[in-house]
Amino acid sequence: MKLLHTSDWHLGRTLHGADLTAAQEHFFEFLLATVKTEKIDLVLISGDIYDRAVPPVESVNLLESILSKLTQLCYVVITAGNHDSLTRLGFAWNQFGPRLQIIARDEQIGRPIIVKDRSCKQPLWLFGLPYLDPDTWRYRLAAPWDASSQAPLVTIDLASPDLTTSTVNSSRLSSKVEDQVSILPSSQTEEPHELDTTADDLLPSLPRNPQGVMSGALKRIRNWIQANYQTAAKPTVIVMAHAFVTGGEVSDSERDITVGGVATIPSQLFLDYGFTPEAAADFHRQCDHEAYFALGHLHRPQTVAGKDNLKYSGSPLPFSFSEAGYEKTITVVELDAGQIKTKDLVVPPWRRLVRLKGSIDEVIAQAQDPQIAQSFAEITITDNARPEALYARLRAAFPYLLVYVHQPTNPVSLPGPEKISLKEADIAQVIADFLEQVGGDKPSEQELQVVNEIVEEVRLNRESA
């Protein structure tokens, strides 16, 4: 069985104003080709399909197009991220039938998608966790939950030769958008929600931070595993989650999800399913299984805490210049005889990002390399004096320049204010001194001539008034 782990598509996002639609389409071509060549059975998308809760129509159409093509080739499982709205994701739920599963509702957390491989020997238990906003989820996940009475969300049999006729048991969402909204957590809808704190204070609740609500969600998962585990058919467990795990390396493009003064979740919390170390050891002895945590939210591909099975696929596109020089990847996860093997495939860049720094001459010289010249560029110019026509010269050399800044290597420090008599001062000389202090060099003869002409014109206008 082969799965493909990806996340953080952020459809609708721009890069310093540059439209990334063509880059997204370029990635989708690579994704479809990979699904075919690698013979992928399931694509897992761990949150942040969209960049904002109300995406532009173009982004919705783009998602509909890729899901239509993907679901002809394999099954697709999506968990909602902190940027997503389920009323926008839910449009596709009924359109693509059981080939598409979207996980974001309270009643889905803790219940797996069961996938039977072609040998029918070792099932996959796939649990999905959306982004868990503490203010929304700390009461829901603290409520009593009986794992023994919870059926799987869906059972998929990969032995079926045709996706359209695969044996799938699933309860579907209502096709009405208003019905979808009514069963979603409030933070997943577009309307702001005022919590009734008077009523909530009477309810059991988890700590108001990401670790607290994640512990509650993982407790459901471990309880379901304990209630349904059978040694004869030892499962492989995959948990999809959209969260900031301690030890993960951030870029400049993730949105801050700090709540209650806490942003991150300890990596060991995932590995132990929220148990204490002692209880976790007993759990793993009784319910021995291999596990993989398919994470989303951080945009750099990485494993966390040195654990190969605790992994961020990263975003398929760079969304800030802090990601310049980093390869973007998707992760292929292969399950074979109870073993989990992963490999990263590099996403071919549509347009690279470069960060350049140096004097104007040094920077422009680098444009002789066509690959650099055709990249999205962030440029820092270090000349002490601001070069003439700086933007025009840079834009001519780098047509995809997005950010530029003048940052002198030895900036001129301005002296403190000096009291002078304007009646006695040579105004042209005052202006010339100012230009030298700010620009770092004395004005040229041509510049001084312009200053003198302006000063003389102002003097004549005053005398004739």
TrEMBL record:
Annotated Nuclease SbcCD subunit D C-terminal domain residues: 350-438
Cross-referenced Pfam families: Metallophos, SbcD_C
Calcineurin-like phosphoesterase domain residues: 1-96
Keyword Flavoprotein: no
CDD domains, A to Z: MPP_Mre11_N (cd00840)
Function comment: SbcCD cleaves DNA hairpin structures. These structures can inhibit DNA replication and are intermediates in certain DNA recombination reactions. The complex acts as a 3'->5' double strand exonuclease that can open hairpins. It also has a 5' single-strand endonuclease activity.
Subunit details: Heterodimer of SbcC and SbcD.
Protein name: Nuclease SbcCD subunit D
Gene name of the encoded protein: sbcD
